[in-house]
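Re: the request from the purification team.
They wanted to know what the chain is likely to look like in 3D before they choose a buffer screen. I agreed to run a prediction and write the result into the notebook, where they can find it.
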Amino acid sequence: MPATRLTSNSKKSSKSALPAIPHVRGMGAWLAVVRTYQQCSETLSEGIKPLGLKLAQHDVMMNLLQSNSLTQQELAQRSFVTKSHMSAVLMEMAELGWISREGSEMDKRSKVITLSAQGQELASQAFAVQAQVVNVMMGDLSNTQIEEIQDFSLNAYEALAQHRVSMQD
């Protein structure tokens, strides 16, 4: 295919034409949610940094505070840590003395993860930081507004989960 050449008679646009972006209902709301999530993660990360915690470690600790003991697989399902990264996070936390990993009595192939006494103390401190971040984020919202945000988020989560399943079919 021969190359197209511009001649002096050709009109040359000073700006390249960008494709029109179609209006998408809810795009502004979606961007606000994403930006808020990112800001929340960065704020929490800065808050727990003086405790010597990384965000992934914090996530594991918060899950263990709620459930006392979980298998590695359960932690991977409940947390924001990828399954492939979970082993490394848990290994580091065990080396630091924050958790223990013991064989499950029900399934010898599984490891049950629990917080050590040191881990429980650190998790309590980290939870206080998280609670402060949430309090700042919720500000002066009424209980009704907070419930509406929760309902919206749960509905959006469910819709996305169903969409992912339909994409895999």
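For the purification team: The first helix runs from residue 27 to 48.
Please add any questions underneath this entry.
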